[in-house]
Amino acid sequence: MLPGTDPYIRASRLLRFCAKCGRDERSVPIIRHLCIDCYLELKGRDLFPRSITLTYCPSCGSYRVSGEWISSEDMGNDERVVMAYIIESGLKIPEEIVSADLEDLRVIRTDYGEAIDASVRISIGSSQYRITRRVGLHRERTLCPACHKIRGKGYEAIIQIRGLPFINERLLRTIEENLYKLPEALRNSIAEIEHLREGIDLKLVSRHAAQSIASIIRKEFGGRIIETEEGGTGRSMRTGKKPRLVISIRIPSIEEGSYIRINGQPYIVERVDEERITLINREGKKVTMTKSDIVKSWE
Ligand SMILES: [Zn+2]
Ligand SMILES: [Zn+2]
Question: Is the peptide bond between 266 and the residue preceding it cis, with omega within 30 degrees of 0?
Fold first, then answer.
């Protein structure tokens, strides 16, 4: 080869040329010494991950996506959404390519197991290209941390948060906000939060953490705590299972305008102050009681 005719040298000094087919950048976009066509032909395979691993929890169906567990619902209950996300984050796109979007994927069965035919649309200059490559698919079953705690170790305690006389939306939301604000060690001890119509159940991996959380909630919202042991006698004793601590917290939730019963008598709540509650009885008379008196009358 004559000096100066080497395509690499020509490309760096003058117009950039394709080292394979010789076309220059006036007619075709160039990526790293190759035109886009030759680039995709030679290197297209490298843009895609060889294979991906779809990790899911066989118990609750959530998926692990970049280190985090995300519920199937949050992924639109469509595993292809998860696959698309994993493939897209595994694409190796040279900087000359302006954008690369996964357009389509199909899960197929091959002799070697499952695979995905993934199509990516790339934009370079003013041109667009669509390339399809096969990506291996591995599925991995792993219990997510929440399910692992429940299944593997078994949870040691349940906190049942209820309202007195019943819980309302606003109180529920405030309690939930408070749960997120718990110290991390306590928050991590919550294996599961179950939302029920009558309140919230927390399943905890530690009895001690359960007692700490219960007392924090009571300090914040008032109410009373009753602790009982569940499964400490009878059959479960013989199976050797540790009894479970059940902590019931009843938070007084008396709203203005609501209808309550005290000692069998109906009242309308007229006004709620810090501690005093003004009620109107059946005869239309005003009665004032303290919150704790009302709560006591319900016990
Ligand atoms: Zn070329
Ligand atoms: Zn799970």
Answer: no
Distance from residue 11's CA to the centre of ligand 1 (Å)? 13
> Which ligand does the CA of 20 lie closest to?
1
**Kindly report the CA angle at 176 between 175 and 178, in degrees rounded to 5?**
65
Is residue 238 in a domain? yes
Distance, CA 139 to ligand 2 centroid (Å)?
15
**pLDDT tens per residue across span 138-197:** 888 777 878 776 665 568 899 999 988 788 888 888 888 888 888 877 877 787 778 788
Nearest ligand (C-alpha, residue 150)? 2
Domain extent at residue 186: 154-252
Task: Evaluate whether 137 touches 107 at the Cβ level (below 8 Å).
Answer: yes
Q: What is the complex's ipTM, to 2 decimals?
A: 0.85
Q: With respect to residue 265, please indicate whether it lies within any of the assigned structural domains.
A: yes
Question: pLDDT tens digits, residue range 239-276?
Answer: 556 788 999 999 888 888 888 888 888 999 999 887 78
Residues with CB under 5 A from ligand 1 (ion): 18, 20-21, 35, 38
